[in-house]
Fold this sequence. Notes:
By secondary structure, this protein is α+β, with helices and mostly antiparallel strands. The protein has helices at 2-81, 86-99, 130-142, 183-190, 193-198, 254-300, 319-325, 347-358, 405-465, 471-499, 511-517, 519-528, 548-565, 600-605, 621-631; strands at 103-110, 115-120, 146-147, 151-152, 159-169, 172-182, 199-204, 210-214, 225-232, 235-243, 304-309, 314-317, 365-371, 377-388, 394-403, 506-509, 532-536, 543-547, 575-583, 586-592, 635-640, 646-655. The protein is built from 15 helices and 22 strands. The strands form 4 sheets. Strands 16, 17, 18, 19, 20, 21 and 22 form a 7-stranded mixed beta sheet that branches. β21 (635-640) and β22 (646-655) form a beta hairpin. It is rod-shaped and about 230 Å long. Adenosine-5'-diphosphate is lined by residues 557, 561-562, 565, 593, 595-596, 598, 602, 606, 611-614, 617-623, 646.
Amino acid sequence: MIKAFTSLTQQLRWPLRFLLPATLVLLFIAVLVWLPWQARAMESNERQEQLIADTLWVEQSLRFELNRSEDALASLGTELVNQPPHALIETRMSQLLNNGHELRSIRWLGADGAAIMEQGSIVPGATVTGASLTAWEYARATRASRYSEPFAISAGGPAVIDFYLPLYRGRQYVGSLAATYDLKTLLEETVPWWFAQDNAIALIDRDDRPLARRVAAGPGRGVYTHKRVLDLPGSSMILSTDSVKGPPRLLPNLLVGTVILLGLGLLASLAALWRHIARRLLAEGALRQQMAFRTAMENSLVTGLRARDLTGRVTYVNPAFCQIVGLPPEELVGKVPPMAYWAPEAMADYQQRFAAVLAGHITPQFETIFQRSDGVRVPVLIFEAPLVDSDGRQTGWMGSILDISDRKNAEELARQQQEKLSASARLATMGEISSMLAHELNQPLAAISSYTTGALNLLGRAAEQGASVDAALLKPALEQASAQARRAGQIIRSVHEFVKKREPQRQLVQLRGVVEGIATLIEMQASKHFVSIHNDIPASLPAVSADRMLLEQVLLNLTRNGIEAMQDVAPERRVLRLTGTITGGQVLVTVIDQGHGIAPAVAERLFSPFFSTKAEGMGMGLSICRTAIEFHGGTLTHCDNPGGGTLFRFALPARP
Ligand code: ADP
């Protein structure tokens, strides 16, 4: 339940995990784009505000200059009313003209409008007209000084404005003082150079017609402009400023450049990080898949796996191992020997092997037993190999453990069956030889009977004659009887030895010795069919590691078959030879007969159990021989004898 909830929240969080950084990055890009525009707009604003402030300052300067001039004219006017000497007025007028270059001329007009005195650049005979006339009349009517609207002195000439100061003596109008200002000079004199350097300044009329300009650093760009009315009584001029600067450019802006650069760097590193994370996620996914695959594989294994570190501590076990020892992983992982699954009877073995492991010597493959938690012993086959990390350093050992109970059981079953088989084969052989036994025993028994009968006759005759028995006559008969009895006993013993049931036991055996051990039995078979036996196996032939009884069995079967194969051949050919050689570490023993040989149809089924061409044959002899020889790691083959008959040969590994 909890797991399902966690996975659901994880699923929900998945798009969120990407949405948030994606939104932030988009926001960041938007800010990056917006920031330069904003900086540009701010700079633009700042420049505009600066222009307005500077224009205001210039306007103030212009007004200040005109006010100063007005004041000087007013004090001259006051003097004029008192009619001082003309020379003095002339001096004052020229002083005024010299002090203010913008003053083009000064005139003293009488009450009738005629000039009483004038100085400066005067157009001779010019009369007051137009805008100037209006201002003059207005000033007189309102008794207040007044400026005229700007006008040009001549067509295409410089623009000027007139200033009229009406003069009164008491309430009587006595004339006017008129001053003409050259607007261009006014601008040049009043506007400071630093302002003119950055701006085109102009005085314009109401209809935007230029009256005067000051352009020191080229025409204005029309980007930053400002107009301000020059508030003079009677005149309505406008001061217009136009900056020579263009709009601020985007890239040279250091701040913007830096921000863009940093932003790009950030984006690049974000992209790199993103790529890295994507790669990592991919690798993690692959790893998870590998892990799932590995876990599934380990869980499906029937082979137990156990990892140990260099101190012998168990670091990992798979489910199959837990099943073999019947313990849960928690009781195994992290534990150091002696382990819970060590059987007490094999403790010494484990300790010895563990000490070797700690010393760095492992037995790559060995068989041992484990004790399951319920006490049952489990035979196991262990393969061990060093565990190496990614740097090539050994970190411990990995062992794979095979439960070989089934194999062991099968082996035991096979062994038992083998034993039963050989026992029955022995019995079968015994059946065959029992008739020969009867025949063989017949001889000694008959001899014993006749010797004892002779001895009895001697005794009977002595009793009749009342004479004592001649011991010299009796002794050889009894000795012969005893010898024959021993021979009979020997025959019976060898048969008994042969049929005794026993476990196969391996030992070093000499093949010549084996043949000699069963020579009596072979002889018995041979004599029945008048076959002579040649044992040519050299005594120097190396020994083999084998069960003596099984080898006897094999040799008896092979010799019996050879003898029986020769029962119908000419008596002089009835020779059975046994040879022994050593080739390539293998001891070869060959049983050679000169019998009827083996037809191809018979050869095909020769080793099949219960295959026999004989009326009373069981057909088990060769099958048992082959099994017995292969049990000893050897091979049994046959081929035709070039001199007629058959040749059976078995090879066994030689033991020096
Ligand atoms: P059995 O001797 O009881 O028949 P075997 O397995 O010993 O069973 O032999 C199987 C058959 O192989 C025999 O019946 C015989 O036909 C054939 N055979 C075995 N040895 C020889 C031999 N030396 N020469 C010819 N035939 C042989």
